[in-house]
Here is the input.
Amino acid sequence: MNEETKLAEAKRWHFETKIEETLKAIHQNNMEGIYAKDREEALNEILKRIPPNATVSHGGSHTLQEVGINEILMKGEYHYLRREIATNEEQEHDIQIKGFSSDVYLTSVNAITTAGELIALDGFGNRVACLLFGPRKVLVVAGKNKIVDTLDDGIRRIKEYVAPIHAKRRGWDLPCTKTGTCVDCRDPRRICNKLAVLQYERNRGRTTVILVGEDLGI
Here is the structure.
């Protein structure tokens, strides 16, 4: 085994150890935790948990796009609530409201602590609301890059990394796209507004977290 291979194996060992620790904590927090080695395996884990004819909705997520679930939902035997089909804000709002009564809600989060806490920060709040209450089942998909040690680390990750990058790629003229970090602005177009932390799931069987052994999303 050459040095490059040894290094790659050592890196894999390190993140898989971190994932194992995080999954154990997720189980202790009354959620199901699943490890998928890559996005293809993650997609299979998602599909195993969506029954035919289920009503399915999701929050905005680059992770879900990378996994490829959106295309399958459009072609499959599901009642797929897609806000992209809305032609105005009222229709989009109606679709988001219907998402609260969906059978399965798909989402990612901005960070997951090694203590098994899920951290999500939204602009409007539809994603964090469904993460906490409403849909019968919630499937959370996150890459290994989302794992952090503490809640403070997770919030810092969002403020200093996720939000500026998200705003920049969208072309939004916000203060963080100039400074590269959150300045706790009061801009009416601000995207960091509603913070949720899921520390423990009271309803056993409702929330499943699929941790993927590759970097996904932001």
User: Anything to note?
Assistant: The longest helix spans residues 3-28. The longest strand covers residues 137-143.
